[in-house]
Amino acid sequence: MKKAPKSHELSTWLHWLEQLHHKDIDLGLERIKQVAHFLNLQAFTCPVITIGGTNGKGSCVATLESIYLQAGYKVGAYTSPHILHFNERIRVNGQEVSNADIVNAFQIIERARGDVYLSFFEFATLAGLLIFQQMELDIILLEVGLGGRFDAVNMIDADVAVIASIDIDHTDWLGDSREKIGFEKAGIFRQGKYAICGDFNPPQVVLDHAAKIGANLFCHGRDFYFNVDNLLSIWDWHGPHVQLHALPLPHLAMQNVSSALMAYCCLAEKLPVSHQALTRAIESVRVSGRFQKIEDNPLVILDVAHNPAAAFMLSQRLKQELKPTQKLIAVFSALNDKEVSAIVEHLSEQVTEWYIAPLPSSRSWAIDDLKEELLRGGASNIKKFDDITTAYKSALLHSGADNCIIVFGSFYTVAEVLKYTHNNKFRIVNRP
Fold it and tell me: I need a surface site. Which of 109, 256, 366, 420 has the fewest CB within 10 A?
């Protein structure tokens, strides 16, 4: 096995970690628990909220982070995957931690693990927990990477566990039905602790598991719900013994913000937040790559929708936001474990042109196979390119000022466009 780098460069360590373990994904808690026990990382003195779900995890984390920061609390947030920089995964008080802090954590973990193999994600998770342990935090937010029951963050017993949504994704790992996937996600629930299900129609197995272990379960639509007043652009939230009125409409999906509010309410006695702070938090929260608008002329929207359920939500949002006559162009690509035809199906009637390319990943679709998947999903007017950046530049060049370009399909797809945007000071001005 290749020895750990002596370098203090984060990029060197990340490259080494990518080569360390023979599997990209290796679910199970035995190995990481062994190292965490040695580092005394399995319990925290402050409350912990763990957030899982097929879609909406990042939005729930961001909303809770915003709520607690607006109230003046010290917050640690661990999320994945990152889009541009690894540091995005570990935040303290809303700020990405430094390269030096991450490298220091990696060095400590490497000394502690001995001959225990750890995956990239397990190393990252332990680094986040180690950094949080060194801070005097009021609340810790942990996002599940994959599934829940065997995910690395599940070695921590959360005070509140949230399932944002349950849909079909990662079937090779989690099962091919909502019942099987729901059971895996419900594995983050704990006996005697708060459990929240944000899915509007949860599989029965989620309810049964919560009852079996004695978790205190709150379900969307049954125990908490929201009402929207589109005329006044406000909404009300109703939970057990709590009502929040005249909240501003969020930039994120209402379903996820609502679930985050339920999580906040579970800990409100310990960590109270004023209505004013809640309002500021909801009004200001954004998440990179979640219906993110980066250009106005033409309108360019980035969204990491990478499964059929997320594509459906994206389709609905586009129908709400765009004019009926507005031409929609898609820059799209996905990893080869995704149901591309089912994803594309939700947007095939809205998108007039598709600009596709392979992704910078060993798990990328081959371009001709990707095109075949799009055709199966009902797409037409498909143009192939060597890479996402070239596809995006061509989409810009051939878009009118009143067109909309939607970049979606994978975190990699969005990342490539964000890199291009950040690296270019001058916008491409185009006219039909």
Answer: 366
